[in-house]
Write a structure and sequence with these properties.
The complex is a heterodimer. Chain A has helices at 2-7, 16-39, 42-48, 50-74, 77-115, 309-312, 315-322, and strands at 125-131, 141-144, 157-159, 164-171, 176-180, 187-192, 198-203, 210-216, 226-229, 241-250, 256-263, 272-276. Chain A is of the alpha+beta class. In chain A, strand 10 and strand 11 (256-263) form a beta hairpin. The longest helix of chain A is centred in the N-terminal third of the chain and has 39 residues, at 77-115. By secondary structure, chain B is mainly α. Chain B has one domain (3-24, 34-157). The radius of gyration of chain B is 16 Å and the shape is globular. Classes of the chains: A alpha+beta, B mainly alpha. Chains A and B meet through helix 2, helix 3 and helix 4 of A and helix 1, helix 3, helix 4 and helix 5 of B.
Chain lengths: 325, 161
Amino acid sequence: MARARDESSPLFAGNAAGTLRLIVYLALAVVLMVLDQRNGWLWRLRYTAAAVVEPVYRLAGLPAAGVRTMSVAFADRQRLTEQNQRLREDLLLANAKLNRMSAVAEQNQRLKELLDTQRSLELNVQLARVIDVDLGAYRYQLTLNLGARDGVKAGQPVIDAHGVMGQVKEVLPTTAVVMLVTDPAHAIPVVIERSGLRTVAYGSRDGNQLTLPNIPLAADVRAGDRLLTSGLGGRFPPGFPVGEIRSVAPASTGMFQVAQAQPAADIDRSEDVLLLHDQAEPDGPPAPVKPMGPPRDLTPAAGDLPASPAVAKPATPATTRGTQP
Amino acid sequence: MNRQRLSLWWFAGTLLFALLSMLVPLPGALEPFKPYWPALFLLYWSLESEDRVSLGLAFAIGLAADVLNGVVLGEQALRLCALVFIALRFRSRLRFFPMWQQTLAVLALLLNDRILLLIVRMLAGGTLPPASWWISPFVGAALWPFLFLLLDDLRARLRIQ
C-alpha cells in the first residue's frame, strides 16, 4: 500500500484510496460499538482474551504496588509507631464493641429461634485485594485479584470496613470487575436509618456521590441521616451502611425531594475489600408456607413419622438453583 | 537482518509500552493530567516510519486498548484511526515543521481526539465531563517534544530504522 502511494507526489498524498479506507475503518468501528452496546459481547471476548489481559493488568498494577511497598519501606519510624498506636486503640474499641455485640447477637439468635427464622448474623466473606489499574476516568469500576477460580460470582456484594462498595459485575478466571455504588448506572435499595423510609440510591453523575432522586415531599429526611441497605430486591443483604445524606433539596419538577449522599465506604482508597458470600434471599415474595397439617404433638402417631416433609423440602430449591448456570 | 528484526521488536515494544502506561494508575489528584499514551506513540511512529503505520494497525491497537480498558469495543479504534489518518495525510508537512509548530499540531490532533471521544460518549448516553477532562491533551502536547527527542535519540543509539 505504502509503495503505491510513493509513486504519486508525496507532498500531496491525498488519494481517494486512503479516504475510502478510513471510511471503511470508521464504519467498522461504529458497527462494533453499536453491536457491543446492544449485545455486550465485549465481555465474552474479554473472557476469552483473559489469558492475555490478566498478565497485562498485573504488569500495569506493578508500579502502584511498588510505590506502596516503597512507602512502607521508607516510612519513618515515628509515623509507623503512631499508626500502630492508633490501630491498637481502634482494635481495643472494636473488641469492646464486639463483646457487647456478642451478647446482643446471642439474644438475637435466641429471639430468632423463637421466631423460627434461619437467618444468622454471621458473615460469610472472602478477602480480596484491589488491583490498581486505571480503567479510564469515567468508568466507575474496580478490579479485584479473585475470579471464577476462587468461587466469585457475578452479583456478589462487595464491602469494605465502612460500608457497601458495590457489586461484582463481571468475573474473569482470576480477576473480577466490581461496579461501584457511585456508578450512574448503579442503583441500590436503601432505608433511612432514622425514619425507616425506604428509597433507592443511584450513583451520581458528577463524581463520587450518591443521589436519591425520589424522596416524597412529605418525608422526613435531613442532612446527616445514615443510609442502610434495605435488603429489598435481594441483591444486597439488609443492614449494611451505604452512606450519609449531605444535602436535601426539592427536585426541579416539584414532585419529589432530591438528596445527595456521601458513600460510607472508602471508594477510592480501599486496598482490601470483602466479598460477601451469603446472597440475600432471592427476589419476590417469600415462598408460600407449605400446609403441614396439625402440629406434630397433636398427631396420634408422633413417633412413627420422624422424617416430615419439612426436612426434605429445603434440598429441592438448592438443587434447582445449582443447575441454573 | 538481525537489525531489522531488532527494529521491529523496538517498534512493537514501544506500542506495547504505550498500552501499559495507559493502564498504570496515577494518584487521584494527578489523574486528569495523564496523557493519552497510545496516541502519542502512534503519532511518533506515523511521522517517523510511514510504511509501518497504517490505518489497519491503528485499528488493531485501538481494539487492543478497548479490550484492555473495558470500554465499548471500537471506541478507541475509531479515535486512533482518525488520528493516524490525519497524521499520515499531513505527514510530510508535519515532519518539516519546527518543533513548536509540531507541538501545536499535536495539540490540535489530541484536542480533536477528545472531541471525538466526547461525541461517542454523548451518543452512548454519557454526561458532560468536568473541565479538568480537557487538561490531558495539553499535557500530551507539552510532553510531545521530549517524547519525540527521546525516541529519536534512542533510535539513533540503537541504530535502527
